[in-house]
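debug: dumping io for the single-chain case to check the tokenizer round-trip. Nothing else runs in this session.
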Amino acid sequence: MLERRLALRVVTMPKDTNQYGTIFGGVILSYIDQAGFVEARRHGVHKWVTVALDRVEFKQPVQLGDVVALYTTTTRSGTSSVTVRVEVEAERYSSGETVPVTEASITLVAVNADGRPIPFRSPPDIA
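debug: decoded output
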């Protein structure tokens, strides 16, 4: 079984919410992108860029004050890219209950200063 790691943990704030008191979906997408980068960087200190993000379907809303946790797992490591599974959970401010929010796969590519893909080697503990 692949190891799931906590990549990011964020408290939701009023600036992240819509008029209904729930977090904008784009904010969660941004967190997914950040969490994917955190996991990709474990494969090498390179410039990593996002090239693909699969379908994101929201199961539960994230509410103002919830703590959002993003867990990552590397599911594929190629020559110049990695695919990372990101699972998003929200810990409710009012009850402490943890609910699944969404999940996604994100592919990131290691690039050089010109933006061209470069090969990398994952550290031994990642492979």
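debug: round-trip ok. The helical segments are 25-41.
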